[in-house]
Amino acid sequence: MLQIDHVSTAIASVRVLRDVNLTVGTGQMVGLVGRNGAGKTSLMRTVMGHLPVTGGRITFEDIDLSTRPKHARAALGIGFMQEDRGLVPELTVEENILLPVWVSKSLKPKPRLDLVYGYMPELTEMRDRRALQLSGGQQKLVALARALAVGTKLLLLDEPFEGVAPALAQRLADVIGRLRAEKQSILISHSDMNHDKSLYDDVTVIERGANAAAGAAAH
Length: 219
Hints:
Layout: E1 2-11, E2 14-24, E3 29-33, H1 40-47, E4 55-60, E5 63-64, H2 72-76, E6 78-81, H3 93-103, H4 109-119, H5 136-150, E7 154-158, H6 166-181, E8 185-190, E9 202-207, E10 210-211, H7 212-218
Parallel strand pairs: 3-8, 3-9, 6-7, 7-8
Antiparallel strand pairs: 1-2, 1-4, 4-5, 9-10
Helix pairs in contact: 3-5, 4-5
């Protein structure tokens, strides 16, 4: 489904990714693991078109993503949960969830909201609240809901549990676990180097912007 082949990228002429390889198959949950600053967020942002591909290739269902504008990811069925949540503070919970749906020409708001609220019914109670009125953990739930609203084929979840209270972290884990059980394709990043590999179909470890083996060989 998602194929990352020898991908490199740079920020202000500084290389932040070097020949990274990663694959997410249909119905798989793949872990992207690395310490803070290892390049996890840069890789997800590159997939989403926020950073340019300076080498290698990213394909999604045989489509070269570098040929598509970044707003086209939603139309392709890719949902992105940013580490910093990326919500619009003045918009309501429901408006934030619907933002990427409005970009898509194929998705209808009501069915996508019904799906999201089915997974996270607690959001119906706060649907009319502005994002700035929510706690950090509640904002993470909304960010996951927004990704799910358009992620009909693939979800990219960047550090979903970072900075979240234990109760809300467990709630996020429950939702992600249900998605995995239903064979949703997911790429999920985290910085816990002592992760349980049994949670994933595959795990890619990244160090200094490269796959761990390549990084070890280069340093």
